[in-house]
From TrEMBL:
This is DNA-(apurinic or apyrimidinic site) lyase. Belongs to the FPG family. Residues 223-261 form the FPG-type domain. Residues 2-75 form the Formamidopyrimidine-DNA glycosylase catalytic domain. Keywords: DNA damage, DNA repair, DNA-binding, Endonuclease, Glycosidase, Hydrolase, Lyase, Metal-binding, Multifunctional enzyme, Nuclease, Zinc, Zinc-finger. Its EC number is 4.2.99.18. It catalyses: 2'-deoxyribonucleotide-(2'-deoxyribose 5'-phosphate)-2'-deoxyribonucleotide-DNA = a 3'-end 2'-deoxyribonucleotide-(2,3-dehydro-2,3-deoxyribose 5'-phosphate)-DNA + a 5'-end 5'-phospho-2'-deoxyribonucleoside-DNA + H(+). Pfam families: Fapy_DNA_glyco (PF01149), H2TH (PF06831). One of its GO terms (molecular function) is endonuclease activity.
Amino acid sequence: MPEGDTVFLAGKKLDRALAGRTLVRTDFRHPALATADLAGREVLGVRTVGKHLFTRFSGELSLHSHLKMDGSWEVYRPGGRWRHPAHHVRVVLAAEEVQAVGFRLHDLELLPTGEESRLVGHLGPDLLDPQWTDEHTGRAVAALTARPDRELGLALLDQRVMAGVGNLYKCEICFLLGVTPWVPVSEVDARKTVALARKLLLANAWRHEQSTTGDTTRGRRNWVYERSRQGCFRCGGRLRVGTQGHDVQRRPTWYCPRCQRGPAPAT
């Protein structure tokens, strides 16, 4: 599933392409929205909350979408060739000079703009919220420490704690804290953890190359995530990969046994 900064960047791309334009054609290829027609409505803007996208239209109407594992929004000129097969298209929003095409989108829903909180009100503070304050930090810290015995990696992936962290940042945050993802939350500084999560997402919010090391060169962007062949970016040692979570929440989890202390599953 994409990280919050990936969704944030997708939202900004859509906003630049569509905001202020009037739709001349829409095509919803989704059973629940097959008869929807937004032609004539102005696009007011695009809002992201964690991993959720809201495209807002005149008339107090919003389109909610979630990228899940494989969804994407792409922008084309009218008549431009799509990079993905037509049977992957779920929605087309077309204005005079541009069209936005949603491929393999999930959880599509049209709803009154005033009801957006119905879909995201359960989430923790959005780490990329431009209005972030100390109150947001306090809420995230309180949610993170509410279950002190919980594995840190699982708590970081819980969007009800703070919205935006995915598996990449989970692994990298734990590395930078010097602990394995299986340590209990009680063994880390919760305020430092929240600040680090926000710092990493903000650093990558406006670029496609996600880097937690500060180096955007290919093969040097992460400390441990997906570095099984290269080894730990800090010490060069061999990494281990365990699984964390259950059922659909199971994720491969990279860590360095030299640089990170704490429990880990048998590998």
